[in-house]
Amino acid sequence: MESVRMGELVVSATDGDELVAIGLGSCIGLAMVDTQAGVAGLAHVVLPESGSAGGPPGKFADTAVPELLAQLERAGAVRRRLAAVLIGGARMFAIGASLDIGARNAAAVREQLGRLGIHVHAEETGGNRGRTARIVLGSDVSSQLAGGERTSLLSLAGRTGAITGAVRGLAGAR
User: Fold this and answer.
1) CA atoms within 13 A on the CB side of 20
2) What is the dihedral of CA 158, 155, 56, 115, to 10 degrees?
3) What's the pLDDT tens digit per position in 126-146?
4) Within a 10 A sphere around the Cβ of 54, how many other Cβ atoms?
5) CA-to-CA distance for 172 and 124, rounded, in angstroms?
6) 161 Cβ partners below 8 Å, 6+ apart?
7) 67-71, 154-158, 165-169: lowest mean pLDDT where?
8) Out of 27, 72, 87, 163, which one is annotated catalytic?
9) For the segment 68-121, what is each residue's pLDDT rounded down to a tens digit?
10) If you write DSSP's letter for every residue of 118-152 in order, what string do you get?
11) Is the pTM of this model over 0.85?
12) Are residues 14 and 137 in contact, defined by beta-carbon separation less than 8 angstroms?
């Protein structure tokens, strides 16, 4: 199991590898997968934009998405075959909507994916509880709500290029 900590991104092309981002509160776990090539990557995005701030490329949506794409392509993925899954983006504190970092992170990641022409295949974002994002190459991409059961959002079985999943907006989830 490869742990993907805050601001990190990891790419693998090894069947059975497990990439995990634990403790996604307002952060976004961005999984991108090319099932045909058998390549997947996971970024643990902390904030929507880098601005003048420094830090690792995985920390900000505006740098994490293009960097994850570049690493996936170097590993053999083809952009038009990539499917993205977003997990996290919770509203962890009862504060004003303009300060809802989780919603802003999710929107920023979606915007970057759209700009790069990458389809959001499945999403489990919002609510007010943390999640764990998990990719098991050759199996699935899943989300686990804190204290809850694991939910498969994207099947990776068979590497046929056919992928299945569902979009689940959980803005009101507790």
Assistant:
1) 12
2) 100
3) 999 999 999 999 999 999 998
4) 6
5) 12
6) 35, 36, 81
7) 165-169
8) 27
9) 999 999 999 999 999 999 999 999 877 665 678 999 999 999 999 999 999 999
10) -EEEEEEE-SSS-EEEEEETTTEEEEEETTS-EEE
11) yes
12) yes
| Residue 48, helix vs strand vs coil | coil
Tell me the pLDDT band of 52, cut-offs 50, 70 and 90.
confident
Which residue in the block uniquely carries the two structure tokens 């902390």? Answer: 46
Instruction: List, edge to edge, every strand of the sheet that includes 150-155.
Output: 2-3, 18-24, 131-136, 140-145, 150-155, 164-165
Q: Could you tell me the domains of the chain?
A: 2-169 (3.30.1330.200)
Question: What residue has token string 């939910």?
Answer: 151
Tell me the two tokens of residue 107: 């929107």
The whole-chain average pLDDT of the chain stands at: 89
Sequence-distant (≥ 6) Cβ neighbours of residue 137 within 8 angstroms = 12, 13, 14, 15, 16, 17, 18, 19, 38, 40, 156
Amino acid at 113: L
pLDDT attached to residue 166? 35
Structure tokens at 95: 């504060």
According to DSSP, residue 31 is labeled E
Quickly tell me which residue has 């909507």 as its tokens. 97
Residue 150 annotated among the catalytic residues of the structure: no
